[in-house]
Amino acid sequence: MTDNASSESDDKILASASDLIGMLQVLRMGSHVYRQLFSALALIVVAAMSVMYSARLLGRIVESLVSGRDASEIWPISAAFLALEAGAVACQYFGRVILAHATIEITYKLRSELFAKMRRLPIAYFDSQPLGRTITRLTSDVEGIENFFTGTLARVLIAVINIVTVLTAMLVTDLHFGVIIVAVCLPALLFSVGLRRPVVFWLRTYKRRSAHLNAKLAEYLNGLPVIRIFGLEIWSQRQFDESAAELLQAGIATLNWNSVIRPVAVFLCSLPTVLVLWLGGQRVIEGAMELGLLVAFVRFSERFVSPIRVISTEIQNIQEAVVSSERVRRMLTETEEHDVLGRDGPLLPTLRGGIEFRDVCMSYKSGTQVLKGVSFKITPGMKVGLVGATGSGKSSTVNLIPRLYPLQSGQIFLDDINIADIKSAHLRRQLGYVSQDVIVFAGSLRENLLASGAGQGLSDELILAACARTGLSEVIANVEDGLDYQLVEGGENLSAGERQLVAFTRMLLRDPAILILDEATANIDEHCERMIQTATFELMAGRTCLVIAHRLSTIINCDLILVFADGQIVEQGTHSELMGRGGYYADLAGKQLLG
Fold it and tell me: 3-state SS string over 478-512?
Protein backbone atom coordinates (compact mmCIF):
# COMPACT_ATOMS: atom_id res chain seq x y z
CA MET A 1 0.00 0.00 0.00
CA THR A 2 1.36 3.41 -0.92
CA ASP A 3 0.94 6.57 1.11
CA ASN A 4 -1.99 8.74 0.15
CA ALA A 5 -1.55 11.55 -2.34
CA SER A 6 -1.87 14.34 0.20
CA SER A 7 0.90 12.82 2.30
CA GLU A 8 3.20 12.61 -0.71
CA SER A 9 2.43 16.22 -1.61
CA ASP A 10 3.12 17.24 1.98
CA ASP A 11 6.47 15.45 1.91
CA LYS A 12 7.52 17.07 -1.38
CA ILE A 13 6.87 20.49 0.08
CA LEU A 14 8.92 19.62 3.15
CA ALA A 15 11.77 18.27 1.06
CA SER A 16 12.06 21.57 -0.80
CA ALA A 17 13.12 23.45 2.33
CA SER A 18 16.83 23.75 3.00
CA ASP A 19 18.36 22.56 6.24
CA LEU A 20 19.56 26.07 7.10
CA ILE A 21 16.04 27.45 6.74
CA GLY A 22 14.78 24.52 8.78
CA MET A 23 17.23 25.18 11.59
CA LEU A 24 16.37 28.88 11.63
CA GLN A 25 12.74 27.87 11.73
CA VAL A 26 13.32 25.67 14.78
CA LEU A 27 15.29 28.39 16.56
CA ARG A 28 12.63 30.99 15.71
CA MET A 29 10.21 29.01 17.87
CA GLY A 30 12.32 30.11 20.83
CA SER A 31 12.26 33.82 19.95
CA HIS A 32 10.43 34.72 23.18
CA VAL A 33 13.33 33.37 25.27
CA TYR A 34 16.22 34.69 23.20
CA ARG A 35 17.64 36.55 26.22
CA GLN A 36 17.86 33.31 28.20
CA LEU A 37 19.29 31.45 25.20
CA PHE A 38 21.98 34.10 24.68
CA SER A 39 22.83 34.06 28.39
CA ALA A 40 23.25 30.29 28.27
CA LEU A 41 25.31 30.62 25.09
CA ALA A 42 27.61 33.18 26.72
CA LEU A 43 28.23 30.91 29.71
CA ILE A 44 28.98 27.97 27.39
CA VAL A 45 31.44 30.12 25.41
CA VAL A 46 33.19 31.16 28.62
CA ALA A 47 33.38 27.49 29.65
CA ALA A 48 34.91 26.49 26.30
CA MET A 49 37.47 29.29 26.39
CA SER A 50 38.40 28.39 29.98
CA VAL A 51 39.02 24.79 28.95
CA MET A 52 41.19 25.86 25.99
CA TYR A 53 43.32 28.16 28.14
CA SER A 54 43.61 25.49 30.84
CA ALA A 55 45.02 23.14 28.16
CA ARG A 56 47.83 25.64 27.54
CA LEU A 57 48.46 25.90 31.30
CA LEU A 58 48.67 22.11 31.49
CA GLY A 59 51.44 22.27 28.88
CA ARG A 60 53.30 24.82 30.98
CA ILE A 61 53.00 22.59 34.06
CA VAL A 62 54.53 19.70 32.09
CA GLU A 63 57.34 21.97 30.84
CA SER A 64 58.03 23.14 34.41
CA LEU A 65 58.18 19.60 35.72
CA VAL A 66 60.48 18.44 32.92
CA SER A 67 62.82 21.40 33.37
CA GLY A 68 62.98 20.76 37.15
CA ARG A 69 61.67 24.15 38.24
CA ASP A 70 60.94 24.86 41.87
CA ALA A 71 57.52 23.81 43.19
CA SER A 72 56.79 27.41 44.19
CA GLU A 73 56.74 28.30 40.50
CA ILE A 74 54.48 25.37 39.57
CA TRP A 75 51.83 25.78 42.27
CA PRO A 76 50.40 29.11 40.97
CA ILE A 77 50.07 27.66 37.46
CA SER A 78 48.43 24.51 38.88
CA ALA A 79 46.02 26.62 40.93
CA ALA A 80 45.09 28.64 37.85
CA PHE A 81 44.59 25.40 35.88
CA LEU A 82 42.23 23.99 38.55
CA ALA A 83 40.37 27.30 38.82
CA LEU A 84 39.80 27.42 35.07
CA GLU A 85 38.59 23.81 34.97
CA ALA A 86 36.27 24.41 37.93
CA GLY A 87 35.02 27.64 36.38
CA ALA A 88 34.34 25.81 33.11
CA VAL A 89 32.28 23.19 34.94
CA ALA A 90 30.31 25.89 36.79
CA CYS A 91 29.65 27.89 33.61
CA GLN A 92 28.50 24.78 31.76
CA TYR A 93 26.20 23.83 34.65
CA PHE A 94 24.52 27.22 34.91
CA GLY A 95 24.37 27.51 31.12
CA ARG A 96 22.58 24.16 30.89
CA VAL A 97 20.18 25.11 33.71
CA ILE A 98 19.24 28.39 32.00
CA LEU A 99 18.89 26.54 28.70
CA ALA A 100 16.65 23.89 30.30
CA HIS A 101 14.31 26.54 31.73
CA ALA A 102 14.15 28.27 28.34
CA THR A 103 13.39 25.05 26.49
CA ILE A 104 10.58 24.16 28.88
CA GLU A 105 8.98 27.53 28.12
CA ILE A 106 9.44 26.96 24.37
CA THR A 107 7.72 23.57 24.33
CA TYR A 108 4.93 24.78 26.63
CA LYS A 109 4.22 27.72 24.35
CA LEU A 110 4.40 25.52 21.26
CA ARG A 111 1.90 23.00 22.62
CA SER A 112 -0.41 25.80 23.69
CA GLU A 113 -0.19 27.53 20.29
CA LEU A 114 -0.85 24.29 18.41
CA PHE A 115 -3.94 23.49 20.47
CA ALA A 116 -5.19 27.07 20.14
CA LYS A 117 -4.56 26.89 16.39
CA MET A 118 -6.51 23.65 16.17
CA ARG A 119 -9.49 25.38 17.78
CA ARG A 120 -9.34 28.13 15.15
CA LEU A 121 -9.10 25.85 12.12
CA PRO A 122 -12.21 25.52 9.94
CA ILE A 123 -14.20 22.30 10.04
CA ALA A 124 -13.27 21.78 6.38
CA TYR A 125 -9.64 21.28 7.47
CA PHE A 126 -10.57 18.24 9.56
CA ASP A 127 -12.76 16.92 6.75
CA SER A 128 -9.69 16.71 4.50
CA GLN A 129 -7.03 15.74 7.05
CA PRO A 130 -6.73 12.23 8.53
CA LEU A 131 -7.16 12.27 12.30
CA GLY A 132 -3.87 10.43 12.76
CA ARG A 133 -1.93 13.17 10.97
CA THR A 134 -3.35 15.88 13.24
CA ILE A 135 -2.55 13.77 16.31
CA THR A 136 1.00 13.27 15.00
CA ARG A 137 1.45 17.05 14.74
CA LEU A 138 0.34 17.52 18.34
CA THR A 139 2.36 14.62 19.76
CA SER A 140 5.41 13.17 18.00
CA ASP A 141 6.24 16.34 16.00
CA VAL A 142 6.11 18.47 19.15
CA GLU A 143 8.17 15.83 20.96
CA GLY A 144 10.80 16.01 18.18
CA ILE A 145 11.12 19.77 18.71
CA GLU A 146 11.03 19.32 22.49
CA ASN A 147 13.86 16.77 22.35
CA PHE A 148 15.91 19.21 20.28
CA PHE A 149 15.51 22.08 22.73
CA THR A 150 15.76 20.03 25.93
CA GLY A 151 18.87 18.05 25.00
CA THR A 152 20.21 18.33 21.46
CA LEU A 153 20.46 22.14 21.39
CA ALA A 154 22.68 22.28 24.49
CA ARG A 155 24.91 19.45 23.30
CA VAL A 156 25.26 20.84 19.78
CA LEU A 157 25.91 24.39 21.00
CA ILE A 158 28.66 23.15 23.30
CA ALA A 159 30.07 20.97 20.50
CA VAL A 160 30.12 23.79 17.92
CA ILE A 161 31.64 26.25 20.38
CA ASN A 162 34.28 23.70 21.38
CA ILE A 163 35.15 22.99 17.73
CA VAL A 164 35.52 26.70 16.95
CA THR A 165 37.57 27.42 20.07
CA VAL A 166 39.78 24.32 19.57
CA LEU A 167 40.52 25.19 15.94
CA THR A 168 41.19 28.82 16.90
CA ALA A 169 43.42 27.79 19.82
CA MET A 170 45.46 25.46 17.59
CA LEU A 171 45.99 28.16 14.95
CA VAL A 172 46.89 30.81 17.54
CA THR A 173 49.22 28.52 19.49
CA ASP A 174 51.23 27.32 16.46
CA LEU A 175 50.01 28.49 13.06
CA HIS A 176 52.00 26.03 10.93
CA PHE A 177 51.28 22.95 13.01
CA GLY A 178 47.69 24.14 13.61
CA VAL A 179 46.97 24.40 9.87
CA ILE A 180 48.11 20.79 9.37
CA ILE A 181 45.89 19.53 12.19
CA VAL A 182 42.90 21.59 11.01
CA ALA A 183 43.30 20.13 7.51
CA VAL A 184 43.11 16.64 8.98
CA CYS A 185 40.04 17.61 11.03
CA LEU A 186 38.04 18.73 7.99
CA PRO A 187 37.21 15.22 6.61
CA ALA A 188 35.34 14.33 9.81
CA LEU A 189 33.31 17.55 9.62
CA LEU A 190 32.62 17.20 5.89
CA PHE A 191 31.62 13.56 6.27
CA SER A 192 29.13 14.29 9.06
CA VAL A 193 27.57 17.16 7.10
CA GLY A 194 27.74 15.52 3.66
CA LEU A 195 25.65 12.49 4.56
CA ARG A 196 22.80 14.47 6.05
CA ARG A 197 20.62 14.30 2.90
CA PRO A 198 19.87 10.55 2.93
CA VAL A 199 19.22 10.79 6.66
CA VAL A 200 16.80 13.69 6.06
CA PHE A 201 15.05 11.78 3.25
CA TRP A 202 14.42 8.69 5.36
CA LEU A 203 13.46 10.73 8.42
CA ARG A 204 10.86 12.58 6.39
CA THR A 205 9.65 9.29 4.94
CA TYR A 206 9.45 7.82 8.45
CA LYS A 207 7.47 10.82 9.71
CA ARG A 208 5.07 10.65 6.77
CA ARG A 209 4.50 6.93 7.14
CA SER A 210 4.12 7.26 10.90
CA ALA A 211 1.32 9.80 10.40
CA HIS A 212 -0.25 7.50 7.79
CA LEU A 213 -0.14 4.56 10.22
CA ASN A 214 -1.69 6.69 12.98
CA ALA A 215 -4.49 7.65 10.61
CA LYS A 216 -5.09 3.97 9.81
CA LEU A 217 -5.13 3.09 13.50
CA ALA A 218 -7.66 5.84 14.31
CA GLU A 219 -9.81 4.72 11.38
CA TYR A 220 -9.84 1.09 12.54
CA LEU A 221 -10.56 1.98 16.17
CA ASN A 222 -13.50 4.16 15.15
CA GLY A 223 -14.81 1.44 12.87
CA LEU A 224 -14.16 -1.51 15.17
CA PRO A 225 -17.86 -2.49 15.60
CA VAL A 226 -18.33 -2.58 11.81
CA ILE A 227 -15.12 -4.57 11.36
CA ARG A 228 -16.35 -7.11 13.91
CA ILE A 229 -19.85 -7.35 12.44
CA PHE A 230 -18.65 -7.93 8.88
CA GLY A 231 -15.77 -10.18 9.89
CA LEU A 232 -13.11 -7.86 8.48
CA GLU A 233 -10.49 -8.58 11.15
CA ILE A 234 -8.13 -10.39 8.75
CA TRP A 235 -8.55 -7.70 6.06
CA SER A 236 -7.91 -4.88 8.57
CA GLN A 237 -4.89 -6.76 9.99
CA ARG A 238 -3.46 -7.08 6.47
CA GLN A 239 -3.98 -3.39 5.77
CA PHE A 240 -2.39 -2.39 9.06
CA ASP A 241 0.55 -4.79 8.59
CA GLU A 242 1.30 -3.30 5.15
CA SER A 243 1.42 0.22 6.57
CA ALA A 244 3.49 -0.97 9.55
CA ALA A 245 5.91 -2.74 7.18
CA GLU A 246 6.43 0.50 5.23
CA LEU A 247 7.12 2.31 8.49
CA LEU A 248 9.54 -0.45 9.51
CA GLN A 249 11.38 -0.10 6.18
CA ALA A 250 11.85 3.63 6.71
CA GLY A 251 12.97 3.08 10.30
CA ILE A 252 15.54 0.45 9.30
CA ALA A 253 16.89 2.66 6.51
CA THR A 254 17.30 5.55 8.95
CA LEU A 255 19.11 3.33 11.45
CA ASN A 256 21.36 1.90 8.69
CA TRP A 257 22.52 5.36 7.63
CA ASN A 258 23.17 6.35 11.23
CA SER A 259 25.05 3.10 11.75
CA VAL A 260 27.39 4.11 8.92
CA ILE A 261 27.81 7.74 9.88
CA ARG A 262 28.65 7.34 13.56
CA PRO A 263 31.52 4.79 13.48
CA VAL A 264 33.12 6.37 10.40
CA ALA A 265 32.90 9.79 12.04
CA VAL A 266 34.53 8.42 15.19
CA PHE A 267 37.34 6.88 13.12
CA LEU A 268 37.97 10.13 11.25
CA CYS A 269 37.91 12.02 14.56
CA SER A 270 40.74 9.88 15.90
CA LEU A 271 43.09 10.94 13.08
CA PRO A 272 43.94 14.41 14.52
CA THR A 273 45.11 12.87 17.83
CA VAL A 274 47.23 10.26 16.02
CA LEU A 275 48.70 12.97 13.80
CA VAL A 276 49.47 15.22 16.77
CA LEU A 277 51.33 12.43 18.56
CA TRP A 278 53.22 11.35 15.43
CA LEU A 279 54.20 14.72 13.95
CA GLY A 280 54.41 16.49 17.29
CA GLY A 281 56.50 13.72 18.80
CA GLN A 282 58.97 13.94 15.90
CA ARG A 283 59.18 17.72 16.28
CA VAL A 284 59.81 17.42 20.04
CA ILE A 285 62.61 14.89 19.37
CA GLU A 286 64.09 17.24 16.76
CA GLY A 287 63.84 20.14 19.21
CA ALA A 288 61.47 22.07 16.95
CA MET A 289 58.62 21.96 19.49
CA GLU A 290 58.45 22.15 23.27
CA LEU A 291 57.01 19.18 25.13
CA GLY A 292 54.49 21.41 26.86
CA LEU A 293 53.19 22.59 23.49
CA LEU A 294 52.76 18.97 22.40
CA VAL A 295 50.77 18.27 25.58
CA ALA A 296 48.56 21.29 24.81
CA PHE A 297 47.94 20.06 21.24
CA VAL A 298 47.08 16.57 22.51
CA ARG A 299 44.59 18.22 24.84
CA PHE A 300 43.22 20.30 21.94
CA SER A 301 42.77 17.23 19.73
CA GLU A 302 40.98 15.37 22.52
CA ARG A 303 38.64 18.33 22.92
CA PHE A 304 38.03 18.28 19.17
CA VAL A 305 37.14 14.56 18.95
CA SER A 306 34.34 14.73 21.54
CA PRO A 307 32.22 17.46 19.87
CA ILE A 308 32.52 15.80 16.44
CA ARG A 309 31.22 12.60 17.97
CA VAL A 310 28.39 14.58 19.56
CA ILE A 311 27.41 16.17 16.24
CA SER A 312 27.50 12.84 14.38
CA THR A 313 25.34 11.34 17.12
CA GLU A 314 22.89 14.24 17.26
CA ILE A 315 22.48 14.69 13.51
CA GLN A 316 19.38 12.48 13.53
CA ASN A 317 17.79 14.51 16.35
CA ILE A 318 18.65 17.74 14.54
CA GLN A 319 17.08 16.55 11.29
CA GLU A 320 14.07 15.19 13.14
CA ALA A 321 13.57 18.60 14.76
CA VAL A 322 13.90 20.30 11.36
CA VAL A 323 11.31 17.97 9.80
CA SER A 324 8.99 18.31 12.81
CA SER A 325 9.28 22.10 12.79
CA GLU A 326 8.39 22.23 9.10
CA ARG A 327 5.27 20.17 9.73
CA VAL A 328 4.30 22.17 12.82
CA ARG A 329 4.90 25.45 10.98
CA ARG A 330 2.63 24.31 8.14
CA MET A 331 -0.14 23.59 10.64
CA LEU A 332 0.38 26.92 12.39
CA THR A 333 0.12 28.75 9.05
CA GLU A 334 -3.03 26.91 7.87
CA THR A 335 -5.95 29.13 6.89
CA GLU A 336 -8.12 29.81 9.93
CA GLU A 337 -11.88 29.75 10.26
CA HIS A 338 -12.30 33.53 10.17
CA ASP A 339 -10.35 33.65 6.89
CA VAL A 340 -12.64 31.02 5.35
CA LEU A 341 -15.93 32.33 6.72
CA GLY A 342 -15.15 36.02 6.38
CA ARG A 343 -15.40 38.70 9.03
CA ASP A 344 -16.98 37.92 12.38
CA GLY A 345 -20.05 40.04 12.95
CA PRO A 346 -20.31 42.51 15.86
CA LEU A 347 -23.95 41.86 16.86
CA LEU A 348 -24.90 39.97 20.04
CA PRO A 349 -28.66 39.42 19.70
CA THR A 350 -30.76 37.12 21.87
CA LEU A 351 -32.24 34.77 19.29
CA ARG A 352 -35.92 33.82 19.24
CA GLY A 353 -35.50 31.08 16.63
CA GLY A 354 -36.53 32.54 13.27
CA ILE A 355 -34.55 31.08 10.33
CA GLU A 356 -34.60 32.09 6.66
CA PHE A 357 -32.48 30.75 3.78
CA ARG A 358 -32.43 32.86 0.62
CA ASP A 359 -31.16 31.12 -2.51
CA VAL A 360 -28.25 29.50 -0.64
CA CYS A 361 -25.58 27.66 -2.62
CA MET A 362 -22.74 25.82 -0.94
CA SER A 363 -19.92 23.46 -1.88
CA TYR A 364 -17.25 21.58 0.07
CA LYS A 365 -14.95 21.35 -2.95
CA SER A 366 -14.54 23.74 -5.83
CA GLY A 367 -16.90 22.90 -8.69
CA THR A 368 -19.10 20.48 -6.71
CA GLN A 369 -22.24 22.08 -5.29
CA VAL A 370 -24.01 20.26 -2.47
CA LEU A 371 -26.71 22.95 -2.03
CA LYS A 372 -28.23 24.58 -5.10
CA GLY A 373 -30.40 27.59 -4.41
CA VAL A 374 -31.99 26.43 -1.15
CA SER A 375 -34.72 28.80 0.15
CA PHE A 376 -37.15 28.42 3.06
CA LYS A 377 -38.47 30.38 6.05
CA ILE A 378 -39.11 29.15 9.57
CA THR A 379 -40.87 31.17 12.27
CA PRO A 380 -39.78 30.94 15.94
CA GLY A 381 -40.98 27.82 17.72
CA MET A 382 -41.66 25.76 14.58
CA LYS A 383 -40.80 22.06 14.43
CA VAL A 384 -39.30 21.36 11.01
CA GLY A 385 -38.34 17.97 9.59
CA LEU A 386 -35.65 17.58 6.94
CA VAL A 387 -35.89 14.42 4.84
CA GLY A 388 -34.30 13.10 1.69
CA ALA A 389 -31.97 10.42 0.41
CA THR A 390 -28.44 10.20 1.79
CA GLY A 391 -26.31 13.01 0.37
CA SER A 392 -29.28 15.15 -0.61
CA GLY A 393 -28.13 18.17 1.44
CA LYS A 394 -29.92 17.88 4.81
CA SER A 395 -26.84 17.89 7.05
CA SER A 396 -25.12 20.51 4.88
CA THR A 397 -28.12 22.80 5.41
CA VAL A 398 -28.10 22.58 9.22
CA ASN A 399 -24.28 22.89 9.30
CA LEU A 400 -24.60 26.37 7.80
CA ILE A 401 -26.68 27.68 10.71
CA PRO A 402 -23.76 27.66 13.23
CA ARG A 403 -21.47 28.92 10.41
CA LEU A 404 -19.34 25.80 10.21
CA TYR A 405 -18.85 26.23 6.46
CA PRO A 406 -18.85 29.26 4.14
CA LEU A 407 -21.65 30.05 1.69
CA GLN A 408 -20.88 30.06 -1.99
CA SER A 409 -23.77 32.46 -2.59
CA GLY A 410 -27.07 33.48 -1.03
CA GLN A 411 -27.89 34.66 2.50
CA ILE A 412 -29.03 33.21 5.81
CA PHE A 413 -31.04 35.26 8.33
CA LEU A 414 -31.77 34.52 11.98
CA ASP A 415 -34.63 36.66 13.32
CA ASP A 416 -34.19 38.87 10.21
CA ILE A 417 -30.50 39.45 11.05
CA ASN A 418 -27.91 38.37 8.51
CA ILE A 419 -25.97 35.51 10.07
CA ALA A 420 -22.71 37.14 8.93
CA ASP A 421 -23.48 40.13 11.22
CA ILE A 422 -23.72 37.98 14.36
CA LYS A 423 -20.63 37.17 16.40
CA SER A 424 -19.97 33.46 15.79
CA ALA A 425 -19.24 32.50 19.41
CA HIS A 426 -22.39 34.27 20.57
CA LEU A 427 -24.44 32.59 17.83
CA ARG A 428 -23.18 29.09 18.66
CA ARG A 429 -23.91 29.49 22.36
CA GLN A 430 -27.60 29.79 21.46
CA LEU A 431 -27.71 26.67 19.32
CA GLY A 432 -28.12 23.07 20.43
CA TYR A 433 -27.17 19.91 18.58
CA VAL A 434 -27.93 16.28 19.36
CA SER A 435 -27.04 13.37 17.08
CA GLN A 436 -27.19 9.59 17.36
CA ASP A 437 -23.43 9.63 18.04
CA VAL A 438 -23.40 11.07 21.54
CA ILE A 439 -20.10 12.42 22.85
CA VAL A 440 -19.49 11.32 26.44
CA PHE A 441 -16.26 12.24 28.21
CA ALA A 442 -14.44 10.30 30.90
CA GLY A 443 -15.54 11.94 34.14
CA SER A 444 -18.53 12.28 36.41
CA LEU A 445 -22.11 12.39 35.16
CA ARG A 446 -22.35 15.96 36.49
CA GLU A 447 -19.33 17.08 34.44
CA ASN A 448 -20.82 15.54 31.32
CA LEU A 449 -24.18 17.26 31.83
CA LEU A 450 -22.46 20.63 32.19
CA ALA A 451 -20.07 20.00 29.27
CA SER A 452 -22.28 22.02 26.91
CA GLY A 453 -20.84 25.23 28.37
CA ALA A 454 -24.13 26.45 29.83
CA GLY A 455 -25.26 26.32 33.41
CA GLN A 456 -21.78 26.06 34.90
CA GLY A 457 -23.02 27.55 38.17
CA LEU A 458 -26.17 25.45 38.48
CA SER A 459 -26.91 23.69 41.74
CA ASP A 460 -27.42 19.94 41.92
CA GLU A 461 -31.14 20.57 42.60
CA LEU A 462 -31.60 22.33 39.25
CA ILE A 463 -29.56 19.66 37.44
CA LEU A 464 -31.67 16.90 38.99
CA ALA A 465 -34.85 18.79 38.05
CA ALA A 466 -33.72 18.75 34.40
CA CYS A 467 -32.90 15.04 34.73
CA ALA A 468 -36.45 14.41 36.01
CA ARG A 469 -37.91 16.15 32.93
CA THR A 470 -35.91 14.00 30.50
CA GLY A 471 -36.12 10.74 32.43
CA LEU A 472 -32.40 10.59 33.21
CA SER A 473 -33.31 10.57 36.90
CA GLU A 474 -34.42 6.93 36.52
CA VAL A 475 -30.94 6.06 35.29
CA ILE A 476 -29.32 8.01 38.16
CA ALA A 477 -31.46 6.14 40.68
CA ASN A 478 -29.99 2.84 39.48
CA VAL A 479 -26.30 3.78 39.73
CA GLU A 480 -24.02 4.43 42.64
CA ASP A 481 -22.94 7.97 43.60
CA GLY A 482 -25.72 9.74 41.67
CA LEU A 483 -24.36 12.73 39.77
CA ASP A 484 -20.86 11.70 40.85
CA TYR A 485 -21.17 8.40 38.96
CA GLN A 486 -17.99 8.03 36.90
CA LEU A 487 -18.44 7.48 33.17
CA VAL A 488 -15.70 5.87 31.11
CA GLU A 489 -14.52 7.40 27.84
CA GLY A 490 -17.29 7.18 25.24
CA GLY A 491 -19.84 6.33 27.94
CA GLU A 492 -19.33 2.60 27.44
CA ASN A 493 -20.77 1.88 30.89
CA LEU A 494 -24.13 3.32 29.71
CA SER A 495 -26.49 1.89 27.11
CA ALA A 496 -27.07 3.75 23.82
CA GLY A 497 -30.42 5.04 25.11
CA GLU A 498 -28.92 6.19 28.40
CA ARG A 499 -26.20 8.08 26.54
CA GLN A 500 -28.93 9.74 24.48
CA LEU A 501 -30.69 10.81 27.67
CA VAL A 502 -27.44 12.41 28.83
CA ALA A 503 -27.31 14.35 25.56
CA PHE A 504 -30.93 15.50 25.86
CA THR A 505 -30.46 16.62 29.47
CA ARG A 506 -27.26 18.41 28.53
CA MET A 507 -29.15 20.39 25.86
CA LEU A 508 -32.03 21.10 28.23
CA LEU A 509 -29.56 22.71 30.64
CA ARG A 510 -28.04 24.67 27.75
CA ASP A 511 -31.53 25.95 26.81
CA PRO A 512 -30.79 26.84 23.17
CA ALA A 513 -33.06 29.01 21.01
CA ILE A 514 -32.58 26.68 18.03
CA LEU A 515 -32.26 22.92 18.42
CA ILE A 516 -30.92 20.56 15.76
CA LEU A 517 -31.70 16.85 16.12
CA ASP A 518 -29.73 14.71 13.67
CA GLU A 519 -31.42 11.30 13.89
CA ALA A 520 -31.16 11.67 17.65
CA THR A 521 -33.75 8.95 18.35
CA ALA A 522 -32.10 6.22 16.25
CA ASN A 523 -30.64 3.02 17.69
CA ILE A 524 -32.63 3.26 20.91
CA ASP A 525 -32.96 0.20 23.10
CA GLU A 526 -36.49 -0.75 24.14
CA HIS A 527 -35.77 -0.03 27.80
CA CYS A 528 -35.14 3.67 27.08
CA GLU A 529 -37.57 4.23 24.19
CA ARG A 530 -40.36 5.65 26.39
CA MET A 531 -37.96 7.91 28.27
CA ILE A 532 -36.40 9.09 24.99
CA GLN A 533 -39.79 10.05 23.62
CA THR A 534 -40.58 12.00 26.80
CA ALA A 535 -37.17 13.67 26.73
CA THR A 536 -37.63 14.62 23.07
CA PHE A 537 -40.94 16.36 23.77
CA GLU A 538 -39.48 18.18 26.79
CA LEU A 539 -36.44 19.32 24.82
CA MET A 540 -38.38 20.50 21.77
CA ALA A 541 -41.00 22.42 23.73
CA GLY A 542 -40.92 26.18 23.21
CA ARG A 543 -37.99 26.34 20.78
CA THR A 544 -37.31 26.13 17.07
CA CYS A 545 -36.33 22.58 16.12
CA LEU A 546 -34.77 21.18 12.98
CA VAL A 547 -35.11 17.41 12.86
CA ILE A 548 -33.10 15.31 10.41
CA ALA A 549 -34.90 11.97 10.43
CA HIS A 550 -34.56 8.59 8.80
CA ARG A 551 -37.79 7.27 10.31
CA LEU A 552 -41.28 8.47 9.43
CA SER A 553 -42.46 8.43 13.05
CA THR A 554 -39.84 11.02 14.00
CA ILE A 555 -41.16 13.82 11.77
CA ILE A 556 -44.82 12.93 11.17
CA ASN A 557 -46.01 15.60 13.65
CA CYS A 558 -43.66 18.39 12.50
CA ASP A 559 -45.17 21.78 11.56
CA LEU A 560 -43.22 21.74 8.30
CA ILE A 561 -41.30 19.10 6.36
CA LEU A 562 -38.58 20.08 3.87
CA VAL A 563 -37.89 17.40 1.27
CA PHE A 564 -34.38 17.45 -0.21
CA ALA A 565 -33.13 15.86 -3.43
CA ASP A 566 -29.77 16.53 -5.10
CA GLY A 567 -29.06 19.64 -3.02
CA GLN A 568 -32.46 21.26 -3.60
CA ILE A 569 -35.79 21.46 -1.76
CA VAL A 570 -38.20 19.66 -4.08
CA GLU A 571 -41.24 19.68 -1.76
CA GLN A 572 -42.35 21.26 1.49
CA GLY A 573 -45.46 21.07 3.65
CA THR A 574 -46.99 19.05 6.49
CA HIS A 575 -47.01 15.27 6.46
CA SER A 576 -50.65 15.04 5.41
CA GLU A 577 -50.19 17.66 2.67
CA LEU A 578 -47.16 15.92 1.20
CA MET A 579 -48.78 12.49 1.36
CA GLY A 580 -51.84 13.91 -0.38
CA ARG A 581 -49.71 15.13 -3.29
CA GLY A 582 -48.39 11.65 -3.93
CA GLY A 583 -44.99 13.01 -4.94
CA TYR A 584 -41.38 12.42 -3.96
CA TYR A 585 -42.05 12.51 -0.19
CA ALA A 586 -44.94 10.07 -0.45
CA ASP A 587 -42.70 7.70 -2.39
CA LEU A 588 -39.94 7.97 0.24
CA ALA A 589 -42.41 7.53 3.10
CA GLY A 590 -43.97 4.50 1.46
CA LYS A 591 -40.58 2.86 1.20
CA GLN A 592 -39.35 4.21 4.58
CA LEU A 593 -36.33 5.75 2.76
CA LEU A 594 -36.31 9.16 4.39
CA GLY A 595 -32.50 9.33 4.44
Answer: CCCCHHHCEECHHHCCCCHHHHHHHHHHHHHHHCC
The amino acid at residue 211 is A
Tell whether 348 is covered by a domain.
no
% of the chain surpassing 90 pLDDT: 16
Distances (CA, A) of 508 to 410, 432, 477, 500: 32, 9, 19, 12
Alpha helices in 30-152 (DSSP H): 34-67, 71-120, 123-128, 131-136, 142-147
Do 310 and 388 belong together in one domain? no
| Angle made by CA atoms 298, 299, 305, in degrees to the nearest 5 | 90
CA-nearest of 324, 314, 323, 319 to 158 is 314
Contact 496, 523 (CB under 8 A): yes
Lowest mean pLDDT among 11-20, 214-223, 303-312: 11-20
Range(s) of the domain holding residue 526: 355-591
More confident residue, 156 or 71: 156
Residue 255 near residue 205, CB atoms below 8 Å: no
Q: What is the mean pLDDT of the chain?
A: 80
Helix axes 526-540, 460-470, angle to 10 degrees: 110
Residue, of 68 and 522, whose pLDDT is higher: 68
CA distance 459 to 475: 19
